[in-house]
Write a structure and sequence with these properties.
It is a single chain. By secondary structure, this protein is an alpha+beta fold. Among the domains are: 100 residues, no CATH class; 151 residues, no CATH class. Helices cover 57% and strands 13% of the residues. Strand 2 and strand 3 form a beta hairpin. The longest helix is centred in the C-terminal third of the chain and has 24 residues.
Length: 378
C-alpha cells in the first residue's frame, strides 16, 4: 500500500473562501461592529465613558459622604491615602486617623497622620440617606469607615465638603445637561441642511440667509442676555436647561452647511435617480439614501458635540454666568481653582478639570473609532 503525504492546502483554501464569503455577505452593521472592535483607543474610550456614566448614575451609592455635608475641622484636607501595610505587616485596606495642627512658623492649619488610630474600610455600610436612581430612599453605600475616622479620597474644599462625593454628583449635570440640546441641534442640522441641499432654489436661499444671521450672533452676550431674561424664581438647573435648549436650537447651522454641501454633491448620483424612478418620496430619499452616504461625518459630529456641551457648561460656570452654587457641577467646583495660590497649595481642587479632560478625550477616541467603522469597506 502506497502512502502519500497529507496535503491540507485544499482545506485551508476552503476555509479562506468561506471566511471571505462571510465577510462580503455580512450586513453593514456587522462590518461596522467588527471594525470598531479593532480600534483599541475607541474601545478604551468607550469603556471609560461607560464607567464614568455608571458612577454618575449611582453617585449616591458610591459617595462616601453627603456632598453638602460640611466638616469644619477638615477644610482643605488633602486626599486620604488608603493603606495595606501597618508596622510592616499586611492588613486589610484601612486609613489612619487625621488630626489637625498649626505650622510652627506660618501658623497655617496642617494635617498630620495619627498612626495610632486605624480605621478599616468597610463595604456596603450605612450612611447618609439618598435616593437610588432618584426614586428609592436608601442608606447603603459602597465603602466607608467608622466614626470618628474620615475618608476623603479626593480631599476637601474650602467648606470641608468631600470632593469625591461632589465630583460624582457633579458628573450627573455636567455629563447629561447637553444631551437634549445635542439631539435637537443634530436633528435640525440634518433636516434643514438636507432640505436646503436637496431642493435648492428659493428654499436654499432662505435657509442659507437664516444660517448666516444665526452665525453672526455672539454666543456669550446672548447667553448672558438669556440668563438675565429667565424668571429669577426658577431653579438654576431648569434655567440652565432652558438656555442650553435655546442655544442648541441656534447651534445647528454648522452641521446644516456641511449636510447641504454633501447633498449638492450626491443628489445627482445614479442611486438617487433610481429611487426617484421607483417612486420614493423626497423625504425618504434624503433620510434613507442621501444622509447615510456620509454617516461617518454625522457620527463624528455627534460625538464631538457632546463634549463641546460639557466644555461649554464648564467654561460658563467657571466664569460665573452658567450654573452657580448650591448646584453641583464640574464647572461650579472649578470656581475655587481661580486662585493660583489656592491651586498651588491644594492641587486636588483641579480634579474636576482632570475629569473634564478625560471625558472629552474619550469622546474623541470613540468618535474616531465610529468614523472608521462607518466606512467598513475602506
Amino acid at each position: 500500500m502506497s502512502t502519500q503525504p497529507f496535503d491540507d492546502t485544499g482545506a485551508v483554501d476552503a476555509r479562506t473562501n468561506a471566511a471571505e464569503e462571510r465577510y462580503y455577505l455580512a450586513s453593514s452593521w456587522t462590518l461596522m461592529r467588527r471594525r470598531f472592535m479593532k480600534h483599541k483607543l475607541a474601545l478604551v474610550g468607550g469603556t471609560v465613558l461607560l464607567v464614568v456614566y455608571f458612577f454618575a448614575i449611582f453617585a449616591g451609592f458610591f459617595s462616601v459622604a453627603d456632598p453638602f455635608e460640611r466638616h469644619p475641622d477638615h477644610t482643605f484636607a488633602p486626599p486620604t491615602r488608603v493603606r495595606l501595610f501597618h508596622e510592616g505587616r499586611l492588613h486589610r485596606p484601612f486609613v489612619y486617623g487625621l488630626k489637625t495642627g498649626r505650622h510652627p512658623v506660618t501658623r497655617a492649619k496642617v494635617f498630620e497622620i495619627d498612626r495610632e488610630q486605624l480605621y478599616p474600610i468597610r463595604f456596603f455600610v450605612a450612611g447618609h440617606e439618598y435616593r437610588l436612581l432618584g426614586l428609592f430612599p436608601n442608606r447603603v453605600h459602597f465603602i466607608g469607615v467608622d466614626e470618628p475616622g474620615v475618608l476623603f479620597l479626593f480631599g476637601t474644599e474650602n467648606l470641608g465638603r468631600d470632593m469625591f462625593s461632589r465630583v460624582l454628583h457633579g458628573a450627573r449635570i455636567s455629563l447629561s445637561i447637553g444631551l437634549v440640546g445635542v439631539a435637537i441641534s443634530f436633528f435640525l442640522g440634518c433636516l434643514l441642511g438636507g432640505v436646503s441641499g436637496y431642493f435648492g432654489g428659493w428654499i436654499d436661499t432662505v435657509i442659507q440667509r437664516v444660517i448666516e444671521f444665526l452665525q453672526s450672533l455672539p454666543t456669550i452676550p446672548l447667553w448672558m442676555g438669556l440668563a438675565a431674561a429667565v424668571p429669577i424664581t426658577w431653579p438654576q438647573t431648569r434655567t440652565y436647561f432652558v438656555i442650553t435648549l435655546i442655544l442648541s436650537i441656534l447651534g445647528w447651522t454648522g452641521l446644516a452647511r456641511v449636510v447641504r454641501g454633501k447633498l449638492l454633491q450626491l443628489r445627482e448620483e445614479d442611486y438617487v435617480m433610481a429611487a426617484r424612478v421607483y417612486g420614493a418620496s423626497d423625504m425618504r430619499i434624503i433620510t434613507r439614501h442621501l444622509l447615510p452616504g456620509f454617516m461617518s461625518y454625522l457620527i463624528v459630529h455627534l460625538t464631538l458635540a457632546i463634549p463641546f456641551m460639557i466644555l461649554g457648561e464648564t467654561a460658563l460656570s467657571f466664569i460665573g454666568i452658567g450654573l452657580r452654587p448650591p448646584v453641583i457641577s464640574w464647572g461650579v467646583m472649578l470656581q475655587q481653582a481661580q486662585n493660583v495660590r489656592t491651586v498651588s497649595l491644594q492641587p486636588w481642587l483641579l480634579i474636576p478639570g482632570l475629569c473634564v479632560v478625560i471625558v472629552v478625550l474619550c469622546f474623541n477616541f470613540v468618535g474616531d473609532g465610529l468614523r472608521d467603522a462607518a466606512d467598513p469597506y475602506k
